[in-house]
Amino acid sequence: MRPVNVGVIGLGTVGAGTVDLLARNGAEIARRAGRDIRVTHAAVRDLNRARDCAIADIHLTNDPSVIAAHPDVDVVLELMGGEDTAYEAVSTALLNGKHVVTANKALIATRGNELFEQASRAGLVIAFEAAVAGGIPVIKVMRESLAGNRIDGLAGILNGTCNFILTQIHERGMDYDAILTEAQQLGYAEADPFFDVGGVDAAHKLTILASIAYGTPLDFSAVHIEGIEHLRQQDVIYADELGYRIKHLGIARSDSGHLDLRVHPCLVEKDQLLANVSGVMNAVHIHGDAVGDTLLYGAGAGAQPTASAVVGDLVDVVRTLTSDPGNRVPHLAFQPHRLAQLPLRPISEISCAHYLRLTVRDEPGVLADVTRILGERRVSIRVISQKGFGDEHGLVPVVIVTHEAREADIADAARAIETLETSAAPVVRVRLETLS
Ligand code: NAP
Ligand code: HSE
């Protein structure tokens, strides 16, 4: 049988890693796929830049649409990132009858509904394992292996850059900007690292996982998003003293027919498995009614782990080239005509315990004011601790851990505390996650 010709759009961290992996393990991959797979074409922005993979046998262009429409290309790998140009490229590839593999979670989370519809109409596949949690095969597991389960909830460390930053702060106490620069140099961060530290990237991934878990159309706007930018080293230290690690989690829960979708930092008890997922590693904890608790763990970013997911998808696509489109695994696990919206639970209505860090004047009566404000809003205190004495401005951090309380009450209390004359900075608020 003739080889499958692959066109790659983007030869950056993931694209170069993928070309390299296909070359290195080509013989074994061909035995699995049943066909030889060769990269014949690639698109990059800068044709003169040195590449981290061999490109001698690849026709290079700086126009993604050339790859998407090229008659000699059978499968397109969209590994450039971004939304609009990537959308154009994927849509053009589908129009030209090509299956697509992508690592682009922003694209799938925001434009996936239209693209899947276009692909299904044309009897084509868009595969996107690499879009969520790097090398961890979580899409395949949720879509296929857990197909018999009702998914009660999932919680995951979905962004390698955030986890890398939080881990480095915990272990080495380096400053935030220096660690982010290191994550960028290691190829973990998005082109705009705000997507990582602002929680947007994790929200893209959670959007995809939630659709697959609950059979809902993709809806990025349904996710409540918070990043890690407001956290300081002292929060990591205080959380540690209280018996917790701070992790940036994506959480999806179905409760009484309502969906709760959120991405934010959480305090997780140190003896939980998720609390011990360090560096660029990701993990996704899934609770299914039949399987119970399941934890998937692996590298969440980086050239080779992500290439592993891209090539896995590519082999799947090659295997299905001759199969009846109607018998393929649906893009979002559920048959397209059986997708259904579920009502959302707004963040203000969830209940959980909180860590609060206040910056207040070290004066008599301040803690009394704070505890009154919390009490008036039915927020019960589990731990309260003043960290040392007033600094040169007379200010001192006070850390509070609450019992479970309504989000709206906690938010209202934080606002009221911030208006106290003795309060000198916004209240830093981190939810406690029990993973139950
Ligand atoms: P990257 O290193 O910035 O690479 C992007 C590549 O796309 C570069 O080769 C760039 O060309 C090319 N490109 C960008 N715009 C182009 C245009 N208009 N025309 C032609 N080529 C263009 O990005 P990456 O880290 O590999 O990420 C790629 C995708 O994978 C993104 O969707 C990202 O979210 C996703 N992803 C990344 C990781 C990771 O660990 N990095 C993990 C999972 C998923 P030049 O090299 O010439 O600039
Ligand atoms: N920037 C992403 C991360 C890449 O740090 O997790 C993997 O999706």
Can you describe what's shown?
It contains 14 helices and 18 strands. The chain has 436 residues and is of the alpha/beta class. The protein has 3 domains: 167 residues, Rossmann fold, CATH 3.40.50; 162 residues, Dihydrodipicolinate Reductase, domain 2 (2-Layer Sandwich), CATH 3.30.360; 85 residues, Alpha-Beta Plaits. The strands form 3 sheets. Strands 7, 8, 9, 10, 11, 12, 14, 15, 16 and 18 form a 10-stranded mixed β-sheet that branches. Helix 1 crosses helix 12 and helix 2 packs parallel to helix 12. The structure holds NADP nicotinamide-adenine-dinucleotide phosphate and L-homoserine. L-homoserine (HSE) binds next to helix 7.
What is the overall silhouette? elongated
Which kinds of small molecule does this entry bind, naming each only once? NADP nicotinamide-adenine-dinucleotide phosphate, L-homoserine
Count of discrete structural domains: 3
Distance between the termini: 51 Å
Radius of gyration: 24 Å
The name of the CATH architecture of the largest domain is 3-Layer(aba) Sandwich
Reading off the top of the CATH hierarchy, the class of the largest domain is best stated as Alpha Beta
Name the structural class. alpha/beta
**Strand content bin:** 15-25%
pLDDT averaged over residues: 96
> Stretches where pLDDT falls below 50 for ≥5 residues?
none
Main beta-sheet annotation? 10 strands, mixed
Proportion of helical residues: 25-40%
Q: What are the main properties of this structure?
A:
436 residues, alpha/beta, Rossmann fold, Dihydrodipicolinate Reductase, domain 2, Alpha-Beta Plaits, 3 domains, 10-stranded mixed beta sheet, 6-stranded parallel beta sheet, 14 helices, 18 strands, binds NADP nicotinamide-adenine-dinucleotide phosphate, binds L-homoserine
